[in-house]
Write a structure and sequence with these properties.
seven-stranded antiparallel β-sheet; iron; FeoA_core_dom; single chain; Fe2+ transport system protein A; Fe-transptr_FeoA-like; Transcriptional_repressor_C; about 90 residues; alpha+beta
């Protein structure tokens, strides 16, 4: 999907954020109306303004991704992480 540039701010999907780079959550996209996975991500703390970092991934870059928000770590499939848009510039 690549990087999205809106008004000089660079957004990328969490699934595409390089390991070790800190970013800030911009939003969680719903795949469809009342998307339970997107809502669960929001409930877990994937909300706008939260610093986020990819700290690890599966063998050869595969699933799962190990994500850190604050002091909490989550293992997410790439398809789940792709719902989360992050801003690389804010936390750089």
């Amino acid at each position: 999907m690549g990087t999205i540039l809106i008004q000089g701010v660079r957004y990328v999907r969490l699934s595409e954020l390089p390991k070790g780079i800190t970013a800030v959550v911009s939003r969680v996209d719903d795949a469809h109306q009342a998307d339970p996975i997107a809502q669960r991500l929001r409930d877990l703390g994937f909300v706008a303004g939260e610093p986020i970092r990819v700290v690890g991934n599966g063998p050869l870059g595969a699933d799962p991704l190990l994500i850190r928000i604050g002091s909490t770590r989550f293992a997410l499939r790439r398809s789940e992480a792709a719902r989360v848009m992050v801003d690389e510039e804010v936390a750089a």
